[in-house]
Amino acid sequence: MDAFYASVEIRDNPDLRGKPLIIGSLPHERGVVATCSYEARKFGVRSGMNIKDAYRLCPQGIFMHPNFDKYKSVSEQLNAIWNTYASASQRISLDEAYLDVTRQAVDWEGARRIGHLIKQRTLDEVRLTCSVGVAYSKTAAKMASEEKKPDGYFEIPTAEDFVRLILDRDVGVLYTVGAQTAKKLHDAGIMTVRDLRENPDTVVRLLGKHGRWLVQVAHGDDDRPVQPYRPEDAKSVGREVTFQENVRNYELLKDVLFLLALSVERRAGRYGLRGRGVTLKLTYTNMRTISRSRALSYATSSAITIHREALSLLDEVGREPVRLVGVSLYNITDNEVGQIVMRDFLEDQTQQDAERQQLFAGLQRRYGLDFASNLDKIHRMETMHKTIEYMRKHFRL
Known about the structure:
alpha+beta, MutS, DNA mismatch repair protein, domain I, Alpha-Beta Plaits, four-stranded antiparallel β-sheet, 11 strands, globular
């Protein structure tokens, strides 16, 4: 999709059309740009940019918080259209997917027809534009979809066509080469894709397995199939939050970790997933980020277990002011094969239920909010951030 979040907002509010719209945080808040309209991009604003840098570049911009519930709903509409034409669909994000249309297309002309049908139906039925790339491989299709944005269409029929297109471009053109990876390569004198192809040993020495993959892609080789996303393939399930002001009160931090643990429990439970380990993540005032993990003897998605382990890990770190906190389950499985004695399980479940009620009671006493009855609302990303900011401002013992 083209500037997806911004385009949805412009579609729903035509007064925003033609204006530099920036979706993310507000200028006085901490955060980054989620996406922005093409008018904002003319000022140098980009996705992932610190919101204060975006404001410095474009003070006349219209800044908005994202509405993820709306974007998810639109995403379902889009995928219902796209999947009509595919034998396999691999969603990459809310607004992007790989489609294998080999069987439906039969030949290249058929693939071209499907590409244009997708563009037209997306416009007619969802009133948004998308950019379609048709190619022989996933890497080339990704490149093709970016080549003529916005509202673009581009084809890369063969590996030779792909190599000719990218050979003398900066290495950053390759998918999975971010700013830090590009800098490593540039510092080693590898500026273009041609340089990368001519210096494979250096690339592998610098980047290891990733480097070997980049050398392969630089030659146009990518035989990865389109694989539908399965939740159980996730490496972790987590949730994190950035505070608008640094938090020094670790009792507040413990309350926030409980809300995050509840959110992780909900996400994992939606797909029947459990994890065999818990990770705590902290970013301090100086932007130093640490993570601490602990393996569990059995797989779980219990918020109480996640919270207990997160608090234990929190006790092991330095008490510095915190900018960001997160918690996650790792070593994910959709099967629980561990042997648990039923009596012990029931006793622990009873204890967990009591502990959960005690934690909810403490939250209500400290903040005057009925968390237990409003979890459905609180779990939404925007509401979660607002709730935690309210907690930060109104904490009392």
